[in-house]
Amino acid sequence: MKWLRRIGKPAGLALALPLIVLWLAPATWLDAALRESSRGALGLGDAQGRLWNGSGTLQALLPRGEAVTLAVLRWTWHLSLPASARFAVISASTGAPLLDISAYPGGWTLTSAHLELPAALLGSASPTLRDADLGGHLTLKANDLGRHGERFSGRAEILWQGASSSLAGNQPLGNYRIHLDAAGAALAAHIDSPGQPALALAGQGQWQPSQAPRLDLTATPAEARRQALEPLLRLIGRETQPGVYRLQLDGRLSAAPGNPP
């Protein structure tokens, strides 16, 4: 059995080495991973500690080069055998939970999320949205949103409050809600505009991993604001009937006419 012991020692070392590297990895690795996964839209400043347990300042890197501080965070990785991990993030100032996500073979579950982001980050998704110079703030809320194998489960909601655009004189456009619901192998989106906004958005969409989102959105300005909103409307869409515009976006965020498949 000596040969088995000889093989077992290097095999055990090979299995332990990645865990040792992760254990010793600096917190700056998380900043690099965040920047890559968000395509440069988010970063982690003043990262301290280790990859598995540390703190830092979450920053939004806006399309026009401005860096905005969002929150001071603390995070912890919890590893469980054989191959699952839980990543928990809290506010360092209030202790409020911001993100709790678990990953395991074949899937992941976003147990909870409550994140607030500047709407100007939408400009990172499309040159059209960047030129619209959007304002307001986004709030992402999720509970038990997950993907298991090829299927999604759960739901999430994105609120866009105090929406504005420099092309519309930075006057309030309205508040918007995006409901995200599991739809088999995809996430389905429904967009509405509660109240009486200056610019009503309505429509639906769908997203599947490795595919661009498919959106079918219309924008309808209030009659009293229609002339003031024309520069913005000409940028983001085309008029399909009097006073109704179909949104046409480009870049990484694409729009497709008609109902999502």
Explain the overall architecture:
This protein is of the alpha+beta class and 261 residues long. The protein contains 4 helices and 14 strands.
Helix content: 10-25%
**What's the rounded overall pLDDT mean?**
86
Strand order of the largest sheet: 1-2-3-4-5-6-7-8-9-10-11-12-14-13
Rounded to an integer in angstroms, the radius of gyration calculated over CA atoms is 22 Å
Extended strand count: 14
Order of helices and strands: HHEEEEEEHEEEEEEHEE
SSE topology sketch:
Layout: H1 2-24, H2 28-37, E1 42-50, E2 53-61, E3 67-80, E4 84-91, E5 97-104, E6 107-118, H3 127-132, E7 134-148, E8 151-165, E9 174-183, E10 186-192, E11 199-207, E12 214-221, H4 226-236, E13 237-241, E14 244-247
Antiparallel strand pairs: 1-2, 2-3, 3-4, 4-5, 5-6, 6-7, 7-8, 8-9, 9-10, 10-11, 11-12, 12-14, 13-14
